[in-house]
Amino acid sequence: MSKIAMRFVTIVILALLALPVAAAPLEVLTRDGGPIAGPALAHGQSFSQETGQAVTVRTRPFDALYGEIMMGFVTGQVPADLLIFPADWLPDFAAYLQPVPEALVQGPLVQGIHPAYRDGLMRWRGQWMAVTLDGDLHMGAYRLDLFEDPETRADYLAKTGTPLAPPQTWQDYTRIATFFVGRSGPEGQPLAGTLEASASNGQRLWSLFSHAAAYTAHPDHPGHFFFDPETMTPEIDNPAWQRALSDYLAAVATGVDESGPLASHGVRTAFAAGQGAMALDWSDIGVLATDPKASTVADKVGFFPLPGADQVWNPQTQSWDRLAAPQSVPFLAFGGWIAAVPRGAQQPQTAWDFIAYMAAPERAARDVMSGASGFNPYRLSQLDDATGWAALMGPRAAQNYLRVLRESLNAPHAAQDLRLPGYPAYMEALDARIGKVLAKEMTPEEALHEAAAEWDRITDRLGRTSQRRHYREAMGLEEAQP
Fold it and tell me: What global pTM score does this model have?
């Protein structure tokens, strides 16, 4: 090759080396389907357009997501640059994650998250490990047109001796649900008394937990929701849980037989179709049930906090204590979805930038007001946006909806979901037994005793001492130890 040709080749190579190298796509891993993955895809596209940074969203079925993430961690294969997963999985994943940058923690984006979701769900062992994108809790919905109908109210008073009103206690809830079974709504179709999740892998455990919260929240003995915080003996087979399971089964029995067992999404769609007098679900139900395009009862919906109880189980005396007034115990069912960055991520700073982009208040507000996003209100500004919610669901429904959310999140005794290493194993053990109860293959008492025995074995396998420390920290009974 001539010197001129060699010089030309050298110039070409140097020119190519001088060209900017396109950054590799930022890889996001989360669950499949429209909810949760939908916002990640939409925001990933706009983030790419605004910054030039490509974003690839990879999804897995919910049942496979935990396993794929954990398998990547234990084999040293980083699952993705950014993970969006349920807050209850943080105890298992925290050791493999990068802490949230201090500037992000101290900035308005994180400080604007409601403390119930920020302080309780974004930290593990005293460190900030994730950023909340979604706030989950259970609430009740009811048909205003049925509860305010004079003839229905008179009939209810005659049959029960009490005025018809949103339930204050679980006893009220069961009585109202039983009253409405078999009655027809204005649309002419038979009504379910109430609608709750009962399908396998359909979020039914969180309905049971919502029933149990008030019965287990003794003011003098905090932290006894799932375990004895001193011994880590499971509490899920005590009389409080037996009563909760009895209430839950009574509620499910007032459902609509034709539709079969309902998953959570089925609960809210059935209620929006006018099939139930009441429903128990996540706050998604507020957006769907008041949407004229998706609901036949859009202008006829009210909301109530989880019912309470005037009796609470005393774990020390092993007896029921009567309270001066019914105590409602809100339950942060599932907690919500959080975003985190693994150690070893190829583009950690870009991942944190994208998390901040997704969680920016203006985008987050649009997400939580969309029935398709799967994200529910979690920022203080979202709970104060009376104008925005009124435009979405009407002034009366919006006022009622926000009141229930605020009361639930600001309650000093709101119950947290189970947060422990091994969380999926504990949940699977209990869910399998509840399924046998619903299939009439096992009595409620047998199911709870079997599940408690399995929980004991799981705790022993994972280490009772460390599980006790983790449980006490999660229940706020002692300071978190890094």
Answer: 0.92
